[in-house]
């Protein structure tokens, strides 16, 4: 419909008079308007979340994750390409995803697998302690954490892919990999 043919909506005065019992709200042509359903107070749709997924927790985590996704390092970009290639794509990876009190570099909720890309700063004693605490918390949530150096993520992508695939084969998401291979028989799931 063009704007000229679209029926006009009632003015606020008409709607409030109708709500107050002062008559029925009508459109420009004088026809009665259908009552609109009352807005629900339910939470927003969670269609992106499935049984094998976990909710995003906390708005500050979301804001930080959004900022981190916009500024991926070269090693993180390389890892993202690796995790989204071949049959690993079936694991529904998320990058810079908030989870509990942390923002994870990469996570596959179906495989319950976290992949972290560590730079030189992760070899300092305070960072080692922080990483150990974080890993312990993630393991208490049922996730396995695998760490790769920036160098491996960038220069040994094939080796990283094989390692992650082996971990995924041992996870609850092994059937996802099998289904992906069955649906993509040409390359047999090999990294492409």
Describe the structure.
It contains seven helices and four strands; from the N terminus they run αααβββαβααα. A four-stranded mixed β-sheet has the order 1-2-3-4, with helices on both faces. Helix 3 (74-83) packs across helix 6 (157-169). Residues 1-22 and 36-59 have low confidence and may be disordered. It has a domain at 59-183: VSR Endonuclease (Endonuclease, Chain A). By secondary structure, the chain is an alpha+beta fold.
Strand order of the largest sheet: 1-2-3-4
Uncertain segments: 1-22, 36-59
Largest sheet: 4 strands, mixed
Question: Could you name the CATH class of the domain at 59-183?
Answer: Alpha Beta
* Secondary-structure element string: HHHEEEHEHHH
What's the helix count? 7
From the alpha-carbon coordinates, what is the Rg to the nearest angstrom?
A: 25 Å
The separation of the N and C termini measures 47 Å
* Helix-and-strand structural type: alpha+beta
- Beta content comes to 5-15%
CATH architecture of the domain at 59-183: 3-Layer(aba) Sandwich
Work out the helicity level. 25-40%
């Amino acid at each position: 419909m063009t704007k000229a043919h679209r029926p006009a909506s009632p003015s606020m005065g008409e709607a409030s008079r109708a709500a107050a019992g002062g008559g029925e709200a009508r459109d420009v042509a004088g026809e009665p308007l259908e009552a609109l359903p009352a807005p629900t107070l339910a939470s927003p749709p969670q269609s992106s979340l499935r049984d094998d997924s976990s909710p995003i927790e906390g708005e500050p985590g979301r804001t930080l994750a959004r900022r981190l996704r916009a500024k991926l390092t070269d090693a993180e970009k390389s890892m993202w390409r690796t995790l989204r290639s071949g049959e690993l794509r079936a694991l529904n990876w998320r990058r810079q995803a908030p989870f509990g009190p942390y923002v994870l570099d990469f996570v596959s909720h179906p495989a319950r697998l976290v992949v972290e890309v560590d730079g030189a700063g992760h070899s300092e004693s305070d960072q080692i302690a922080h990483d150990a605490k974080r890993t312990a918390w993630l393991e208490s949530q049922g996730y396995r954490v695998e760490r790769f150096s920036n160098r491996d993520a960038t220069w040994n992508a094939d080796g990283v892919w094989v390692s992650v695939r082996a971990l995924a084969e041992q996870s609850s998401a092994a059937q996802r990999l099998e289904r992906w291979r069955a649906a993509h028989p040409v390359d047999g799931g090999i990294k492409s």
